[in-house]
Amino acid sequence: MAISDTDAQAEADYADAAAYFYHRCLHVPDYFFAAPGYVTPESKQAAQTPFSTDSLQSLRWKDMVDEGYIIAGSPATVRERLREIVRELNVGHLIVLCQFGNLSRETTLRNTDLYAREVMPHLKDLWSEWTDRWSPQPLARPPRALGAAPLPAVAEV
């Protein structure tokens, strides 16, 4: 997730960190990219481009955004893209990553703040007709005793 005031600003703010993550941090053997049993031989063969560590090296910002490796842009762009993905994939719970690659603390905090204020509230209506039985709920609080009255001030001698 990479949110800035505009789509162009998102590229300026996050392209280097995304490149760092996809080009330098994913040192995983190709056979771990698709666990056995999750992909049929037919679907693996039908894939346009085999997914591999080497294929990540050619990704540029536009590719990352257009191919869905990263959701980025203004709050409106990110909201729109997330709504599409949630509806298309029937996602009930989102787990977003607001820190990736080598983002600075300040950029990460700004990204998280924009997500919390400008994106998340606009997604709460999705699936509102369903009862959420899976999200953790706070435990009921037992009644608490009232505190004692404050002690009177004592004059110093």
Structural class: mainly alpha
Major beta-sheet overview: 2 strands, parallel
Calculate the mean pLDDT score and round it.
87
Radius of gyration: 23 Å
Estimated share of beta-strand residues: under 5%
Low-confidence spans: pLDDT under 50, at least 5 residues? none
The order of strands across the largest sheet is: 1-2
Q: What order do the helices and strands follow?
A: EHHHHEHH
Say how many strands there are. Answer: 2
Can you tell me the number of structural domains? 1
Distance between the termini: 64 Å
Count of alpha and pi helical runs: 6
* Principal-axes shape call: elongated
Q: What is the helix content?
A: 40-55%
Question: In a few lines, what is going on in this structure?
Answer:
Helices cover 42% and strands 3% of the residues.
Written description of the protein model:
This protein is mainly α and 157 residues long. The protein has one domain. Helix content is 42%, strand content 3%. It has helices at residues 7-25, 41-46, 53-57, 61-66, 75-89, 105-119, and strands at 2-3, 72-73. It has a two-stranded parallel sheet with strand order 1-2. Helix 5 (75-89) crosses helix 6 (105-119). The radius of gyration is 23 Å and the shape is elongated. The model has no long low-confidence stretch (mean pLDDT 87).
